[in-house]
Amino acid sequence: MNLFRILGDLSHLVSIFILLQKMRSTRSCAGISLRTQILYLMVYCTRYLDIFWTFNASLYNSSMKLVFILSTAYTIYLMRTVYKTALDPQIDTFATYYLVGGAGLLAVLFPYKYTVYEVLWSFSIWLESVAILPQLFMLQRTGEAETITTHYLFALGAYRALYIPNWLYRWFLEGHFDPIATVAGIIQTLLYSDFFYIYYTKVLKGKKFELPV
Question: Which helix (H) or strand (E) covers residue 145, if one does?
């Protein structure tokens, strides 16, 4: 395991902690897309099917998989129950069936093997590359976000961005290249590019995160 993957996983864990802390401290899930959280739960449940037969092979990998699945499910639970009054279905309206359908089509067309596990794994990779779109769409519609929400999104984006040097590391030093994961990771990082720029020019300089509506 290399440093870039560890940093990516830590960034992912930080994003989860920030999100849960945001809801706990504000007693609200305002500004958070429920649709994005549901898409991420679909991603983890379809990608980590191997957890049932590889748990003893790597305690680190298995623990991370459990944390991602359970924490995302818990986040959705909180949003649908404890903080449901803060949900705004008039803003969180991105047509996610296009994302699911597109990811499913790519998974069927370009799997490494035509097995249930491999097709679902490919589906999870393509879906994760665009799962953040409902959240970014919400930001675009509202034109602003709480600072803690932007920190959550930055940590989540950094998690995927750090996986790009991880793949390069594995390619050059281990001879392993995964074209599906690499292309999907680049797509996801590009989707974050505008957000990263505004985060750097505004949030890190103490200004309010605002977008043109």
Answer: strand 144-145
- Give me the helices (H) in the chain, please: 3-26, 34-47, 51-54, 59-80, 96-109, 116-130, 133-142, 147-174, 179-191, 193-201
Q: What is the domain extent for residue 9?
A: 3-210
Give the chain's domain count: 1
Contacts of 198 by beta carbon, 8 Å cutoff, 6+ apart: 209, 211
Q: How far is CA 213 from CA 131, 138, 145, in A?
A: 22, 10, 12
When pLDDT is averaged across residues 18-37 and rounded to a whole number, the result is 93
Q: Are 12 and 159 in contact (CB under 8 A)?
A: yes
Is the pLDDT higher at 145 or at 19?
A: 19
Report the C-alpha gap between 41 and 96 in whole angstroms. 13
Residue 160 C-beta-side C-alpha neighbours within 13 Å: 25
Give this prediction's pTM: 0.89
φ, ψ of residue 177 to 5 degrees: the values are -135, 130
Which burial class, exposed, middle or buried, applies to 174 when counting CB atoms under 10 A from its CB (0-12, 13-18, 19+)? exposed
**Measured CA distances, 210 to 28, 112, 213 (Å):** 20, 42, 9
